[in-house]
Amino acid sequence: MEGVTYVSAPPTTRPRLIATDLDGTLLRDDKSVSRRTVEALAAAEEAGIEVFFVTGRPARWMDVVSDHVHGHGLAICANGAAVVDLHRGRRIVRVRELPAGTALAVVEELRSTAPGVTFAVERTGGIHYEPRYPQFHLDPGALHAPVEKLLAEGSDFADQPVLKLLAHHTELVPDDFLALARAAAGHHAEFTRSSPSALLEISGPGVSKASTLALCCERRGVSPQEVVAFGDMPNDLEMLSWAGTSYAMANAHPAVLAATTHRTAANEDDGVAAVIERLLELPPAG
Predict the structure, then answer these.
(1) Which of 131, 137, 152, 190 is the most exposed place for a label (fewest CB within 10 A)?
(2) Residue 246: which of 210, 219, 282, 270 has the closest Cα?
(3) Can you give the pTM of this predicted structure?
(4) CA angle in degrees (0–180, nearest 5) for 119-122-127
(5) Measured between alpha carbons, how far is residue 186 from residues 80, 127, 170 in Å?
(6) What is the Cα–Cα distance from 140 to 118, expressed in whole angstroms?
(7) Interstrand relation of 162-168 and 5-6 (parallel, antiparallel or unpaired)
(8) Which pLDDT band, with edges at 50, 70 and 90, does 138 fall under?
(9) CA separation (Å) from 251 to 53, 247, 254, 279?
(10) Are 44 and 79 in contact (CB under 8 A)?
(11) Given pLDDT bands bounded at 50, 70 and 90, which one contains residue 66?
(12) How far apart are CA 229 and CA 68, in angstroms?
Protein backbone atom coordinates (compact mmCIF):
# COMPACT_ATOMS: atom_id res chain seq x y z
CA MET A 1 0.00 0.00 0.00
CA GLU A 2 1.26 3.50 -0.85
CA GLY A 3 3.13 5.07 2.04
CA VAL A 4 3.25 1.86 4.10
CA THR A 5 6.34 -0.37 4.39
CA TYR A 6 6.34 -3.76 6.11
CA VAL A 7 9.69 -4.50 7.73
CA SER A 8 8.37 -7.89 8.83
CA ALA A 9 5.26 -9.78 7.74
CA PRO A 10 2.18 -7.51 7.54
CA PRO A 11 -0.81 -8.13 9.82
CA THR A 12 -3.24 -10.76 8.61
CA THR A 13 -6.18 -9.98 10.90
CA ARG A 14 -7.68 -6.84 12.40
CA PRO A 15 -6.38 -5.72 15.79
CA ARG A 16 -8.69 -5.38 18.77
CA LEU A 17 -7.15 -2.07 19.81
CA ILE A 18 -5.28 0.80 18.15
CA ALA A 19 -3.01 2.99 20.27
CA THR A 20 -1.79 6.19 18.67
CA ASP A 21 0.34 9.10 19.72
CA LEU A 22 -0.95 12.57 18.77
CA ASP A 23 1.69 15.22 17.99
CA GLY A 24 3.79 14.26 15.01
CA THR A 25 1.69 11.12 14.54
CA LEU A 26 -2.09 11.46 14.35
CA LEU A 27 -2.17 15.27 14.24
CA ARG A 28 -0.92 17.30 11.33
CA ASP A 29 1.73 19.92 11.98
CA ASP A 30 -0.93 22.60 12.52
CA LYS A 31 -2.40 20.36 15.29
CA SER A 32 -5.52 19.58 13.27
CA VAL A 33 -7.11 16.19 12.61
CA SER A 34 -7.67 15.70 8.89
CA ARG A 35 -11.04 14.65 7.50
CA ARG A 36 -9.49 11.41 6.29
CA THR A 37 -8.22 10.64 9.78
CA VAL A 38 -11.55 11.48 11.41
CA GLU A 39 -13.30 9.10 9.02
CA ALA A 40 -10.73 6.35 9.62
CA LEU A 41 -11.06 6.62 13.41
CA ALA A 42 -14.85 6.46 13.18
CA ALA A 43 -14.68 3.46 10.85
CA ALA A 44 -12.35 1.62 13.23
CA GLU A 45 -14.71 2.13 16.16
CA GLU A 46 -17.67 1.10 13.99
CA ALA A 47 -15.80 -2.12 13.18
CA GLY A 48 -15.35 -2.85 16.89
CA ILE A 49 -11.71 -1.76 17.18
CA GLU A 50 -11.08 0.35 20.29
CA VAL A 51 -8.91 3.43 19.75
CA PHE A 52 -6.77 4.91 22.51
CA PHE A 53 -5.04 8.26 22.17
CA VAL A 54 -1.73 7.89 24.06
CA THR A 55 0.11 11.16 24.43
CA GLY A 56 2.53 13.25 26.43
CA ARG A 57 -0.06 16.04 26.48
CA PRO A 58 -1.85 16.95 29.70
CA ALA A 59 -5.61 16.49 29.96
CA ARG A 60 -6.28 20.19 29.42
CA TRP A 61 -4.65 20.04 25.97
CA MET A 62 -6.90 17.22 24.70
CA ASP A 63 -9.54 19.45 23.13
CA VAL A 64 -7.94 18.80 19.71
CA VAL A 65 -9.25 15.22 19.74
CA SER A 66 -12.10 15.25 22.27
CA ASP A 67 -14.67 15.22 19.47
CA HIS A 68 -13.06 12.22 17.78
CA VAL A 69 -12.96 9.67 20.59
CA HIS A 70 -15.70 7.08 20.57
CA GLY A 71 -16.82 4.16 22.72
CA HIS A 72 -14.90 4.12 25.99
CA GLY A 73 -13.92 7.81 25.79
CA LEU A 74 -10.59 7.29 27.54
CA ALA A 75 -7.18 8.69 26.67
CA ILE A 76 -3.77 8.14 28.22
CA CYS A 77 -2.07 11.46 28.94
CA ALA A 78 1.19 12.80 30.40
CA ASN A 79 3.17 9.81 29.09
CA GLY A 80 1.07 7.36 31.10
CA ALA A 81 0.75 9.35 34.32
CA ALA A 82 -2.98 10.03 33.81
CA VAL A 83 -5.98 8.27 32.29
CA VAL A 84 -8.53 10.83 31.16
CA ASP A 85 -12.23 10.50 30.36
CA LEU A 86 -12.83 12.70 27.32
CA HIS A 87 -16.57 12.05 27.50
CA ARG A 88 -16.65 13.65 30.96
CA GLY A 89 -14.95 16.96 30.41
CA ARG A 90 -11.37 15.62 30.33
CA ARG A 91 -11.73 14.36 33.89
CA ILE A 92 -8.70 12.48 35.21
CA VAL A 93 -9.86 9.05 36.34
CA ARG A 94 -6.50 7.46 37.16
CA VAL A 95 -3.21 8.97 38.33
CA ARG A 96 0.24 7.37 38.42
CA GLU A 97 2.11 10.12 40.19
CA LEU A 98 5.73 11.14 40.51
CA PRO A 99 6.35 11.50 44.26
CA ALA A 100 7.49 15.02 45.09
CA GLY A 101 10.47 13.69 47.07
CA THR A 102 11.59 11.68 44.04
CA ALA A 103 11.23 14.73 41.83
CA LEU A 104 13.40 16.75 44.22
CA ALA A 105 16.07 14.04 44.11
CA VAL A 106 16.05 14.28 40.31
CA VAL A 107 16.33 18.08 40.49
CA GLU A 108 19.39 17.80 42.73
CA GLU A 109 21.10 15.31 40.41
CA LEU A 110 20.39 17.33 37.25
CA ARG A 111 21.46 20.66 38.74
CA SER A 112 24.83 19.05 39.47
CA THR A 113 25.14 17.21 36.15
CA ALA A 114 23.72 19.81 33.75
CA PRO A 115 24.29 23.35 35.09
CA GLY A 116 21.83 25.79 33.56
CA VAL A 117 18.90 23.34 33.61
CA THR A 118 15.49 24.81 34.47
CA PHE A 119 12.37 22.98 35.58
CA ALA A 120 8.58 22.95 35.40
CA VAL A 121 6.16 20.87 37.45
CA GLU A 122 3.08 19.35 35.81
CA ARG A 123 0.39 18.55 38.38
CA THR A 124 -3.15 17.30 37.95
CA GLY A 125 -4.38 20.89 38.29
CA GLY A 126 -1.93 22.55 35.90
CA ILE A 127 1.68 23.43 35.27
CA HIS A 128 4.05 25.80 37.13
CA TYR A 129 7.49 27.03 36.12
CA GLU A 130 10.80 28.28 37.28
CA PRO A 131 11.29 31.90 36.14
CA ARG A 132 13.78 31.06 33.35
CA TYR A 133 11.86 28.05 32.01
CA PRO A 134 10.27 28.71 28.57
CA GLN A 135 6.55 29.06 29.26
CA PHE A 136 3.94 27.32 27.11
CA HIS A 137 1.55 29.80 25.51
CA LEU A 138 -1.34 27.49 26.38
CA ASP A 139 -0.80 27.96 30.13
CA PRO A 140 -0.82 31.70 30.82
CA GLY A 141 -1.91 31.37 34.48
CA ALA A 142 1.05 29.38 35.74
CA LEU A 143 2.90 30.25 38.94
CA HIS A 144 6.61 31.12 38.62
CA ALA A 145 8.91 30.06 41.48
CA PRO A 146 12.03 27.95 42.15
CA VAL A 147 11.25 24.29 41.60
CA GLU A 148 12.08 23.48 45.22
CA LYS A 149 9.21 25.77 46.23
CA LEU A 150 6.91 24.30 43.59
CA LEU A 151 7.54 20.81 44.98
CA ALA A 152 7.50 21.73 48.69
CA GLU A 153 5.10 19.90 51.00
CA GLY A 154 3.55 23.17 52.09
CA SER A 155 2.99 24.60 48.62
CA ASP A 156 -0.44 25.79 47.52
CA PHE A 157 -0.59 22.83 45.12
CA ALA A 158 0.67 20.04 47.35
CA ASP A 159 -2.75 18.36 47.25
CA GLN A 160 -2.45 17.95 43.46
CA PRO A 161 -0.35 14.90 42.49
CA VAL A 162 2.71 15.51 40.32
CA LEU A 163 2.34 13.93 36.89
CA LYS A 164 5.63 14.99 35.33
CA LEU A 165 8.74 16.98 36.05
CA LEU A 166 10.02 18.82 32.98
CA ALA A 167 13.68 19.77 32.56
CA HIS A 168 14.88 22.20 29.89
CA HIS A 169 18.38 23.12 28.74
CA THR A 170 19.27 25.85 26.27
CA GLU A 171 22.65 24.50 25.14
CA LEU A 172 22.67 20.70 25.18
CA VAL A 173 21.73 18.53 22.19
CA PRO A 174 18.35 16.90 22.98
CA ASP A 175 19.45 13.26 22.75
CA ASP A 176 22.68 14.01 24.61
CA PHE A 177 20.70 15.67 27.40
CA LEU A 178 18.45 12.62 27.65
CA ALA A 179 21.42 10.23 27.85
CA LEU A 180 23.17 12.43 30.41
CA ALA A 181 20.07 12.70 32.61
CA ARG A 182 19.35 8.97 32.49
CA ALA A 183 22.92 8.20 33.51
CA ALA A 184 22.78 10.68 36.39
CA ALA A 185 19.26 10.14 37.72
CA GLY A 186 17.67 7.23 35.88
CA HIS A 187 17.63 5.23 39.10
CA HIS A 188 15.10 7.71 40.52
CA ALA A 189 12.53 8.02 37.71
CA GLU A 190 11.67 7.47 34.04
CA PHE A 191 13.19 9.90 31.52
CA THR A 192 12.09 10.51 27.95
CA ARG A 193 11.59 13.28 25.40
CA SER A 194 9.17 14.27 22.63
CA SER A 195 10.16 17.86 21.83
CA PRO A 196 12.64 18.96 19.16
CA SER A 197 14.35 21.04 21.86
CA ALA A 198 16.34 19.81 24.86
CA LEU A 199 13.24 19.25 26.96
CA LEU A 200 13.03 16.12 29.12
CA GLU A 201 9.83 14.61 30.51
CA ILE A 202 10.29 12.81 33.81
CA SER A 203 7.73 10.39 35.25
CA GLY A 204 7.46 8.17 38.30
CA PRO A 205 9.31 4.84 38.38
CA GLY A 206 7.74 2.38 35.96
CA VAL A 207 5.38 4.96 34.45
CA SER A 208 5.29 5.12 30.67
CA LYS A 209 2.84 5.09 27.81
CA ALA A 210 3.41 1.35 27.55
CA SER A 211 2.83 0.44 31.18
CA THR A 212 -0.43 2.40 31.44
CA LEU A 213 -1.64 1.09 28.08
CA ALA A 214 -0.87 -2.43 29.30
CA LEU A 215 -3.04 -1.83 32.38
CA CYS A 216 -5.92 -0.58 30.23
CA CYS A 217 -5.58 -3.55 27.88
CA GLU A 218 -5.41 -6.04 30.73
CA ARG A 219 -8.76 -4.77 32.03
CA ARG A 220 -10.23 -5.42 28.59
CA GLY A 221 -8.65 -8.81 28.12
CA VAL A 222 -6.60 -7.49 25.19
CA SER A 223 -3.14 -8.96 24.70
CA PRO A 224 -0.15 -7.06 23.25
CA GLN A 225 -0.44 -9.18 20.09
CA GLU A 226 -3.92 -7.71 19.51
CA VAL A 227 -2.66 -4.10 19.61
CA VAL A 228 -1.41 -1.91 16.76
CA ALA A 229 0.52 1.19 17.90
CA PHE A 230 1.74 4.34 16.13
CA GLY A 231 4.39 6.86 17.18
CA ASP A 232 7.21 9.16 16.18
CA MET A 233 9.36 10.16 19.18
CA PRO A 234 11.38 8.55 22.00
CA ASN A 235 8.46 8.79 24.45
CA ASP A 236 6.66 6.30 22.17
CA LEU A 237 9.41 3.69 22.18
CA GLU A 238 8.19 1.54 25.08
CA MET A 239 4.64 1.49 23.70
CA LEU A 240 5.82 0.59 20.21
CA SER A 241 7.98 -2.21 21.59
CA TRP A 242 5.13 -3.53 23.76
CA ALA A 243 2.50 -3.66 21.02
CA GLY A 244 2.32 -6.71 18.81
CA THR A 245 2.44 -4.52 15.70
CA SER A 246 4.02 -1.08 15.57
CA TYR A 247 4.26 1.63 12.94
CA ALA A 248 6.76 4.47 12.83
CA MET A 249 5.77 7.61 10.99
CA ALA A 250 7.97 8.60 8.04
CA ASN A 251 8.89 11.70 10.06
CA ALA A 252 9.87 9.66 13.14
CA HIS A 253 13.01 9.96 15.26
CA PRO A 254 15.76 7.53 14.12
CA ALA A 255 15.40 5.46 17.31
CA VAL A 256 11.71 4.97 16.59
CA LEU A 257 12.39 3.94 13.00
CA ALA A 258 14.88 1.38 14.29
CA ALA A 259 12.53 -0.06 16.91
CA THR A 260 9.31 -0.54 14.94
CA THR A 261 8.11 -3.43 12.82
CA HIS A 262 6.56 -1.27 10.08
CA ARG A 263 6.60 2.21 8.56
CA THR A 264 3.82 4.48 7.37
CA ALA A 265 3.52 7.88 5.72
CA ALA A 266 4.26 11.08 7.62
CA ASN A 267 1.72 12.75 9.88
CA GLU A 268 1.22 15.43 7.22
CA ASP A 269 0.22 12.68 4.79
CA ASP A 270 -2.30 10.90 7.07
CA GLY A 271 -0.03 7.94 7.79
CA VAL A 272 -2.21 6.62 10.63
CA ALA A 273 -5.36 6.79 8.52
CA ALA A 274 -3.62 4.95 5.67
CA VAL A 275 -2.86 2.01 7.95
CA ILE A 276 -6.30 1.94 9.57
CA GLU A 277 -7.91 1.81 6.12
CA ARG A 278 -5.73 -1.21 5.31
CA LEU A 279 -6.47 -2.91 8.63
CA LEU A 280 -10.20 -2.60 8.07
CA GLU A 281 -9.84 -4.65 4.88
CA LEU A 282 -8.57 -7.60 6.96
CA PRO A 283 -10.79 -10.25 8.56
CA PRO A 284 -11.46 -10.01 12.32
CA ALA A 285 -9.19 -12.11 14.55
CA GLY A 286 -10.51 -15.52 15.51
Answers:
(1) 137
(2) 210
(3) 0.94
(4) 85
(5) 17, 23, 21
(6) 18
(7) unpaired
(8) low
(9) 19, 11, 9, 21
(10) no
(11) confident
(12) 17
